[in-house]
Design a protein that fits this description.
homotrimer, alpha+beta, 6-stranded mixed beta sheet
């Protein structure tokens, strides 16, 4: 067995932290295959890590092991958890970064307490290197998930209060918020395509209206390039969530909008 | 067959986009070998991607597959193209990023229309994941280039009007421009060593003069460190193009010069 | 033989330089395994490269080849050196980036002069690509270190004057300085845990006092999260050196402190 390992951290690439984690993994398992999922999560931004992981999982092979090191509680009593979900493994601090798979259904969860696998001297500040990396190496090599420690129930897991979009009582609109902003300045929301389709029935996308910060966008675009350069548009993006963008521009910068901004998708009427 | 795959995008590394592309490639071809060529191209900067690709190609193995995802037209009717050039494969949107190999000679080009290879649900905003990645996986595995779709003639390809340096009618100078600025603040131009050598004949590099923004640099340096720290210099750099740099400094910042700045290399007289 | 290769450079990831080095290595040795140790060293920052390399080496497999390209003297007469240390190989310019292994003991050092291995046209500005990469490929493949050139004595190596922490004559305090700042804004110092432990004997960490820029921190923390969010703390970090941090904050930004800042660890009295 040789599980693909992905790394998702808030380490950035300015320091040696990611490289050193790979060194430890390869010291324990020279044939390991390691992919950087993303290291651009802002320090301690659990929410963003949770969303990134969720939108990425489906695109990785079955049996992939995702290692998430966004860990403000490093060195305190916080647990480490190994979760089986969708045929993959998720190794993370038990601080809410696994809220979405915990909500949507997972196969099993275990507390990571296999100290004999950790590096001999566990530091108080870098468990990515001292605990996550060596445990990941053993799991990638084929160690059974249950071997990391006792089983955890769903109730024992720490969850984040991640905002969910809400359908208006009248059934004509969905209210959500901006949950992420990407490099292109696109505003990614928590309004899912499924919620829209349920409400819209057969209505054409051109009749939908998006409202945010006093602005109104008429209709949903079939592509960024379907409107003139510099024009604001709404589109169901690659994560299947509603996204606000400017064709060849940067919507976040132009609108001066950040995460948490309220957004309404009026589907009819 | 296992072609080396390189990725050249404007995705940056703040988001999960590059990681997810690798996930799709490895889902389809677990033995794939993937190298990040560069993800630091500014959003939609086709010109920079074109130059980076061109200066990098010679340093990669024969049969390498370069995947270029700088794609402002994603989701519109723009074509995807697979080009064979110099024994390598280039997979890119047909938007001009392949202008330089299209100009300098290529073996064949094909329109990518093999829908059966795409991901089942092709989004409107992320063809890097939904189209480029799965097609790249099949090509790396050994699929014949011609299997992606019909042959395209040179005339069908979209080209960018990339500036070329011009030799003065008097045959004493070359006029070009700054086409890129790198991390060190070096100003990279489109004045090629060959053009200089043709004009210079046997003249010593010390007699050349470089003019930009009212500044004059006397002679071409044999190395950054051949002048005192903080001194401006001109040198034929690693891409074989004329480069303006400050030894242990940042020429772009100091001169406040950006891309497009005119530059003259006076070779004699 | 297939030595793991790591790359430590000041190239950043905005340009194609790192990707191209990998292209050359893989052209010469298709089975090469390459890890990015770090490319975020500031341009020409030899000191930071020296510290990063030193704290990373122990976490990589025996026989790893670390390639360091922070090379302000590229194209001048500066030597390239191959060092054997701790069972690993270090390939670098002879400009002081190997000061720490040169001090702490190495097995052998050689001048890299095997021109027949270099790329046919060695540029004046990018030896990472033209010299380091092809030589690294051969070493990874199994070439004997001594084959790169003549043996160098310790006296021939260029060393940097890297500051060492000093124990107060009274034996009650250690004076050091901030030598690095990481992405989290943590201030990393040159005060080593061993020096502290020697002085402290059995004294509890709570009795230690840290002084910097008119501030006093009482006691050493067992974890970042052992103090309330936003609170300044002192901790022996993952490199085993004293570190100043703010729990869930950015100490460097809050204190406006940079490298070189004096720091005193009062152990008793």
């Amino acid at each position: 067995m040789n599980r693909l390992i992905t790394l998702l951290t808030d380490f950035g690439l300015e320091d040696e932290y990611v490289g050193v984690m790979k060194g430890v993994i390869l010291s324990r398992f020279p044939a390991a295959r390691i992919i950087d999922l993303c290291h651009g999560v802002a320090p301690q931004d659990l929410r963003r890590a949770a969303y990134l992981l969720e939108s990425s999982r489906p695109y990785f092979p079955a049996a992939t092991l995702h290692v998430v090191v966004v860990d403000p509680g490093v060195g305190t009593g916080r647990r480490l958890v190994l979760m089986e979900a969708g045929g993959q493994l998720l190794l993370a601090p038990d601080n809410g970064v696994l809220t979405l798979p915990a909500r949507s259904g997972f196969t099993a969860a275990f507390e990571v307490s296999c100290r004999e696998l950790f590096l001999p001297n566990v530091s108080r500040t870098f468990h990515g290197r001292d605990i996550f990396a060596p445990v990941a190496a053993e799991l990638a090599k084929g160690m059974a998930p249950a071997a990391v420690g006792r089983r955890l129930s769903r109730e024992e897991l720490v969850l984040l209060p991640l905002a969910e979009a809400e359908i208006d009582p009248s059934g004509t609109a969905i209210t959500g918020e901006v949950v992420d902003i990407d490099r292109f300045g696109n505003l990614l929301t928590n309004i899912h395509l499924n919620a829209y389709q349920e409400l819209a029935g057969g209505l054409p996308p051109a009749t939908a209206i998006v409202l945010l910060r006093g602005r109104m966008i008429n209709g949903l675009s079939p592509a960024y390039g379907a409107v003139p350069p510099g024009t604001l548009l709404a589109i169901f993006g690659s994560r299947n969530y509603l996204e606000i963008a400017t064709n060849q521009g940067n919507a976040a910068r132009e609108l001066e909008i950040g995460r948490g901004e309220r957004i309404v998708l009026r589907v009819k009427g």
